[in-house]
Write a structure and sequence with these properties.
This protein has 402 residues and is α/β, with parallel strands linked by helices. Helix content is 28%, strand content 22%. The chain has helices at 17-25, 42-55, 92-100, 125-132, 151-158, 169-175, 177-185, 215-226, 235-241, 290-298, 311-320, 332-340; strands at 69-74, 77-83, 108-113, 136-141, 162-165, 189-197, 230-234, 256-260, 280-285, 302-306, 325-328, 346-352, 379-387, 390-397. It binds NADP nicotinamide-adenine-dinucleotide phosphate.
């Protein structure tokens, strides 16, 4: 991945791919929300948007770490840039300072997440900034990680460096919503994505579902996959659809493909068992179908037996593997179970202008046990977007603890 410095004159026009990436992760180009005072100048916000754009170059690759970008500015010009490419590698500030060299002395550094102040896999960035002699640090958001949580900012201020916090904060938070959820809830953020017809069906009554939505929507889903750490389906979707679940992008990140199946009565020849370029993990119950497990292992598929094969236990396992975001691309049975167990925080519903009918045709969410409309789960922060001929409704489920 290219983390080479880009030394350029600050350009007031935002790069065109900012808009596209915004669609990827639902990041608004401007984070200003009504009633909230803007933090920083127009130039500050422009530089922070540049940080976010740099950070997005590592989409899907940094977990359990956040996506972070940094820009060093001296006399109104960018003299160094960087982003965090993956866990274990240096943080964004280190790349930006290296690129700036002596130019960092007396400069302002913009960074989308508070610089760390602790020894992890890399030394503290706060000390690096102090040593480099920067005069000012502009921070997008405070790090929710209790190991940092304001300590980096306090250390910089203690060393006499001016620190401005909260520039483009909402956009910074949204880019790292999976990371923030992971830190606060000790689970990856769950995103339920489905494609349905105008009459609310995700497949015909025979189970056929290729394709519900247009190519435009499917390309959007491929991008979404490339920003996630894992994508989960249930056994029935493997049997009915034989999906690939890749991001279909040359050089793009592919999430780990995860199948949840209790009995492993799955086809022997499935695309998901082809693991030469993309990994697959099968989560199952203890002792399920040993012969099939052996066949999977021969194909390079990972098999993990969980004491209890539930969405919550699956998310707990994926949290322990260091994941920040998990995409549920399952049918209604598993989706209902995932929602009921709090394993879904965000919903993306693609709606195609098609009618398929069929009283037994599957719907996106199975039985939740609700009997009155007052029990309905309402989405918050809802966005509607037109994608080709389809419509995408995006929103967040209120969490029990909120
Ligand atoms: N349009 C779309 O967006 C979309 C997306 C996905 C699927 N689909 C369609 O949806 C249909 C399949 O839906 P589905 O709901 O039957 O299948 P599913 O998503 O495959 O989920 C059900 C399966 O998940 C496994 N499972 C493991 N643990 C579970 C748990 N705790 N709770 C519930 N299930 C668990 C079971 O597999 P085992 O039986 O192997 O144990 C179960 O049969 C297909 O027709 C497919 O084409 C459409």
């Amino acid at each position: 991945m290219d983390n080479s410095p880009v030394v350029a004159q600050a350009d007031p026009s935002l790069p065109s791919d900012t808009q596209e990436n915004a669609l990827l992760v639902g990041t608004a180009v401007s984070s200003d929300s009504p009633g909230k005072e803007r933090v920083g100048s127009d130039f500050d916000r422009q530089m922070m948007q540049r940080c976010l754009e740099l950070a997005r170059r590592a989409l899907g690759r940094t977990s359990p770490n956040p996506l972070v970008g940094a820009v060093v500015v001296k006399d109104g010009e960018i003299v160094g840039e960087g982003f965090h490419p993956r866990a274990g590698e240096p943080h964004a500030e280190v790349f930006a300072l290296r690129a700036a060299g002596v130019g960092a002395r007396g400069a302002t550094i913009y960074v989308s997440l508070e610089p760390c102040n602790h020894y992890g896999r890399t030394p503290p960035c706060s000390e690096g900034l102090i040593a480099a002699g920067v005069a000012k640090v502009v921070v997008g958001m405070v790090d929710p990680n209790p190991l940092v949580a304001g300590a980096g900012i306090a250390r910089l201020r203690g060393a006499g460096i001016e620190v401005l916090v909260g520039v483009e904060e909402a956009a910074c938070r949204q880019l790292n919503e999976g990371f923030v959820h992971r830190i606060l809830h000790k689970r990856p953020m769950g995103i339920l994505k489905y494609a349905m017809t105008l009459d609310g069906k995700i497949a015909t009554s025979s189970g056929h579902s290729a394709w519900v939505t247009s190519q435009d929507s499917r390309s959007e889903v491929h991008q979404l996959r490339s920003s996630c750490d894992a994508v989960i389906v249930g056994g029935n979707t493997v049997r009915q659809d034989n999906p690939y679940l890749t991001s279909h992008q040359v050089g793009g990140h592919n999430p780990l493909r995860v199948v949840m199946s209790r009995h492993l009565n799955l086809p022997e020849n499935a695309h998901l068992w082809e693991t030469a370029s993309v990994g697959t993990l099968v989560l199952t119950e203890v002792g399920a179908n040993p012969n099939f497990q052996e066949m999977l292992l021969k194909h390079g598929v990972e098999v993990v037996e969980l004491a209890s094969l539930t969405p919550d236990q699956a998310m707990d396992y994926l949290y322990k593997r260091g994941f920040c975001s998990v995409l549920w691309e399952c049918g209604g049975t598993l989706a209902a179970s995932a929602i009921a167990q709090g394993a879904v925080q965000k919903v993306l519903a693609f709606i195609a202008p098609k009618i398929i009918g069929g009283s037994n045709a599957p719907t996106p969410v199975g039985d939740l046990g609700f009997t009155t409309m007052t029990q309905a789960l309402s989405l918050e922060r809802v966005r509607w977007r037109v994608i080709g001929v389809d419509c995408l409704v995006e929103g967040y489920l209120r969490q029990k603890s909120e």
